[in-house]
Amino acid sequence: MTPPSEIALDSLHSMATSIFTGALTACNIASAFDRRIQFEGNFMHRLLPDGSGPAEIDLSAYKRIFVIALGKAALPMLDTLLDRMKRRKGLRGICCAGQLPAKRNWRFRYFEGGHPLPNEDSLAAARTALAMLRKAKKDTLVFFLISGGGSAMFDLPLDTQISLDDTRAFHEVLLGSGAPIQEINTLRKHFSAVKAGRLAMAAPEATKISFLLPDVPLRSLDSLSSGPTSPDHSTLAEVRALIERYQLAAKFPSTVRAFFERKDLPESPGNKSWLPPFLPRLSRTEPAHPRRVTSAASMSGEEPAFQDSVFEILLSTHDLVENARALAQQAGYHAVVDNSCDDWDYADAARYLLDLFHTLRTRHKRLCLISVGEVTVTLNRTPGAGGRNQQFALACALDLQKYPGDRLIVLSAGSDGIDGNTRSAGAMADPTTVERARTFGYDPEESLATFNACPLFTALGDSVVTGPTGHNLRDLRLLIAERD
């Protein structure tokens, strides 16, 4: 007969999984699209969030319509746009996603980009997109559908002499550096021919609309897929400071090192006077009502290629966390949201959230602490099988073992369904995780030190496995406690 304590923990596992998957399901791309855009005849209406009414675009005024879709959500974003827009003369496009669709639209070329490292299709997609956009004129409307993951899936070195192998090595060094994503993407922007607004610069005369599904903080939207259509505010001085701070030069392939050491290395496109260098880490949550639209008017100080650009945020981590909060409250939990540890080292984030969790659970019999964003992992060796979410969960497991018999669960998972170099989205930990792992012959401390958490959680049946979700709204962490 199963002990009551195990039944209670099984119930918590199911509850955490239900909140995570339910929050993802509620972030429906098609519904979000319909809240922002409507097509009627030859007109596209943008439904502005400030209540000022729709802004119209007459599609019949354009001889050609190009669509460039890139990132982990490229396929559902493209399918939604094409379904709403119906057939249009002069419609052509490119889609670079993590997988090829079962059914393809003959007007599009499809590429299976690599992630977390670029592959041949990543570079081929970027070359093809640049070639297409260079044909755009004033009578061309370009839709950019941009989601997370595009930094790797869609890339092309500025220096044509840098090989794919060296490009992959460059990305691998950055991912293991421990730097937060904004700083990693600052380096990617200055390396790439399609990032930091250079993709939009390829069609300077065209009208450009970017639909965004951010996997970055809303205050750093130009980091989404390293900002292929956004003017860049980072500078070469910042790039060189980052290379020095994280001691990257010696780790780069020689061609990449030589590229960054060039004295004639160009600045990325964008007005560099807009923002001070290096936005500080903010110890607050995202705004309750994030700004949804950036209009062309706000680009008036930028280069002409950006002045006919419009940006629409379809979904963000704000939607993910609010859906999780609503589900937790419906299940009878006191829900608390704290996103303070965004971009922190995984161990620091685990300590911070666990301290808060243990304090709050003394006050509430049913508690769900919710946190979104991403943590960082600094690799000092070749990693095993795992990712930042499983690393975070295993660090939490080592703390939770101190509370045997308590009904506690920690879930950490990526909204894209992929964690690091594994097929898991993340993992769950409870007070029995460490003991059960040792029974199965695993050493949790060693698994943590070798970045090899996936085999342990897989053996325990505590991996979170969703498969690719078509989303990339960053990571969701749930810390749940119940007591009588």
Give an account of the 3D structure.
Residues 274-300 have low confidence and may be disordered. The protein has 2 domains: 4-24 and 319-482, 3-Layer(aba) Sandwich (glycerate kinase, domain 1); 52-314, 3-Layer(aba) Sandwich (Rossmann fold), CATH 3.40.50. The protein is an alpha/beta fold. Helices cover 35% and strands 18% of the residues. Strands 6-5-4-7-8-10-9 form a 7-stranded mixed β-sheet, with helices on both faces. The protein has a 6-stranded mixed β-sheet with strand order 11-12-16-13-14-15, sandwiched between helices. Helix 1 crosses helix 11 (317-330) and helix 7 (181-191) crosses helix 9 (236-245).
CATH architecture of the largest domain: 3-Layer(aba) Sandwich
| Biggest sheet architecture | 7 strands, mixed
Overall tally of domains = 2
Radius of gyration of CA atoms, rounded to a whole number: 23 Å
| Corresponding CATH superfamily of the largest domain | Glycerate kinase, MOFRL-like N-terminal domain
Order of strands side by side in the largest beta sheet? 6-5-4-7-8-10-9
Report how far the terminal alpha carbons are from each other: 22 Å
Highest-level CATH class of the largest domain: Alpha Beta
Average of the residue pLDDT scores: 88
**Tally of extended strands?**
16
Number of helical regions: 16
Structural class: alpha/beta
- Indicate the CATH topology of the largest domain: Rossmann fold
Shape: globular
Question: Helix amount, in percent?
Answer: 25-40%
The low-confidence parts are 274-300
The fraction of residues assigned to DSSP E strands is 15-25%
